[in-house]
Amino acid sequence: MEEQGKILHIVMFPWLAIGHLRPFFQLSKYLAERGHQISFISSPRNLQRSVKVPQHLSHLINLVSISLPAVDHLPAGAESSMDVPHVKQQLLKVALDLLEPRVRSFLENARPKPDWIVYDYASHWLPPLARQLTISTAYFSLFTAAFMAFLGSPSAMMSEKHGRSTAEDFTVVPEWIPPPSNMAFRLHEMSRNMEKDAGDGNEYDSGTNDTFRFALSIEGSDIVIFRSCDEFEPEWFEIVHHLYQRPVFPVGVLPSGDEHDDEFDSNAEWLRIKEFLDLQKESSLVYVALGTEVVLTKKEAHELALGLEQCGLPFFWVLNRSYEMLPEGFCERVRDRGVVYSKWAPQIKILSHASVGGFLTHCGWNSATEALGLGRVLILFPVMNDQGLNARLLQEKKVGVEIPRNEIDGSFTSESVAETVRLAVVGEEGRYVRENARKMKELFGRESRRSNSYVDTLLHHMMNMNQSS
Fold first, then answer.
1. What are the tens digits of pLDDT across the range 90-135?
2. Greatest CA span in the chain, whole angstroms?
3. CA spacing 20 to 30 A to 272: which of 130, 131, 290, 386?
4. How far is CA 107 from CA 113, 114, 130, 134, in A?
5. Is the pTM of the predicted complex or chain greater than 0.85?
6. What 8-state DSSP symbol labels residue 36?
7. Digit-coded pLDDT (tens) for 173-193
8. Who's near 451: CB < 8 A, 6+ residues apart?
């Protein structure tokens, strides 16, 4: 239990993505467990589908629903990144920016007055607002310390000297990262990012690019919080601490049971999935899931499918696009050992099953840590956003193996998929990586006590800083 002292009122304001809302809410529960009052702000639909307040914390966690304003070209009812195509995601940032007056009104009228506001990278306008209201600020990074170190200091992000305007600029290890290091994007990864962010023209531009949002969010913070472990990436924490020149606190990956998964225990869909998993040998199956936002080309889907067919191992593939993307006759040929599933799947429940031997992942940090928390080896297939740098970090830490791709255009072959999957899951050469991945349960698993210790350290600083201000 946190030491006795003032009860803090902490406001949480995550970015409009399910993968951001849930970690923010998980941290909220850790803080509330220690007796502090939480106001958790998001849109109505996001609150409904992403958070569930435990009964014993209902008197401490207040869900604050603020509707998003209408934005030209943003589909009606779109409240998170999973609701819009990639080319329109900047429009969500337009909606977020338009929330400033409503957030200001809440902060001005909230009782008791908020002591802290914990916010995400997209809310670059929040730090000056909080400063006007004498509220302390914490930027909560859901990205690894390695990724944030690659971006650099706030001044470097905004300077012309270090400005990165082309995809090629991001393929070079920056000067502030000491050698030797391969922490840089591949050209195909950044080309895809820039293509995604470009949209169909200025009508889909938010007016503030993501690099400036990161820079201003960090620059305006009193402290920076990371959803990571300094035991996992100590060298990168050292770099960000030097770059930011302010207190930096890891809080672990905040492991938990997924309440949304738990609802599946007696669900007919889960029972059908479990029936298939139960038929497989222990540690033999490849779980394949590339997140809700990754969009494969037809050729990529074909090569991935044929690679899974050629690897000879059982698999469960969560495919968030049409079966028409798959090679003709594929599902029929693999029906005895493979499932292609096109609905939302209870990922943690699947990864927890004894049959799962490896996870073919897009390297989103949420998914990677869920798998490592269960000791599953990773087959790395980064596509966009921060995923390329996550893959570099995970391979560097020897907990995953990356599928080889052409660095220029991102092309790959079914043979390379099959070889990498076999190496990671059953190959003798992959034994060391599998053993390393199993050890990660100590850092990232549900039973790990590290997040509790991290949160206690964070709260000690927050309370001391609040008392001295």
1. 999 999 999 999 999 999 999 999 999 999 999 999 999 999 999 9
2. 68
3. 290
4. 7, 7, 8, 10
5. yes
6. -
7. 999 999 999 999 999 999 887
8. 30, 251, 252, 253, 254, 255
